[in-house]
Amino acid sequence: MKAYKVFLIGRRGWKSGPVLMSLHARGDATVYYARGQWSEAPGWLWERGYGLCCIETEEKAKKYFNSIPWNYTELWEVEAEEVLTKLPPAMDLRALNWKQLQVVEDGWVEGTIMARRVKLIRQIL
Q1: Which residue of 40, 56, 67, 112 has the lowest C-beta tally within 10 Å?
Q2: CB 83 within 8 A of CB 113
Q3: Residue 57 domain boundaries
Q4: Burial of 34 from C-beta contacts in 10 A (0-12 / 13-18 / 19+)
Q5: pTM (predicted TM-score)
Q6: Each residue's pLDDT tens digit in the chain (125 positions)?
Q7: Residue 44 near residue 28, CB atoms below 8 Å
Q8: How far apart are CA 80 and CA 109, in angstroms?
Q9: Number of domains, the chain
């Protein structure tokens, strides 16, 4: 399924060049992405009903992308596989960094979907 995803441009280590990575998740929840390769949700998150967050339409993805106050982000069209039919409760992303799933009331970004696997197709912004 075609979807859209916002990435942070980061580094894996002090010697490595820039890589695309999870926008919010850190620690054991971090996922790295490379063009043409499949990236998967961490097993411990998938087992608890959480996948890789994507956005269902380009319009909603651009709206979200433009609301992010940070530099060093990119918006990509992606191919998403094993898309969840129902979203789990939204979680506190800071707690996620320590493998804790704490539900929050804010909810997900408009148009959020989750998938087990994602592959980069083309950069939008």
Answers
A1: 67
A2: yes
A3: 2-123
A4: exposed
A5: 0.84
A6: 999 999 988 766 555 667 898 888 777 888 999 888 999 999 988 998 889 999 999 999 999 999 988 888 999 999 999 999 899 888 766 666 555 555 556 778 899 999 999 999 999 99
A7: yes
A8: 17
A9: 1
